[in-house]
Amino acid sequence: MPDPRAIQDDIIDSFSLFSEWMDRYQYLIDLGKKLPTLDESERTDDKLLAGCQSRVWLHLEGDKNEVVIRANSDAAIVSGLIALLIQVYSGCTARQIVETEPFFIQAIGLGEHLSPTRANGLHAMVKAIKAHAQKLVNEA
Description:
140 residues; mainly alpha; two-stranded antiparallel sheet; 2 strands; 11% strand
């Protein structure tokens, strides 16, 4: 079972290799490019996430024992943010997701370097993932 705290520590270590923010943005974009694409049939309005300026399709699947997250965006940096959230939370139990805050966001400087609209989108993605996990915990 993945450890979302250890994964976040690894993300922090990876970003610490880049001293310049332009390099960090490029790394983020590169992570987004590696995301598996969703089929056109999966890019439906009911999977579009509200609160994001760019379009984000969020698929939350599985059960309380393992939540699987698949997502895509039409924006490069947002795709990178999605890739980070998938690294941290996909494959975890619903309880792990509920109990694990995304501390990597502040630790790597995203809080201060993202535009307000991207920061709102990131918050919306975290909120949706956590709400889905909380629902699974409540149903159990």
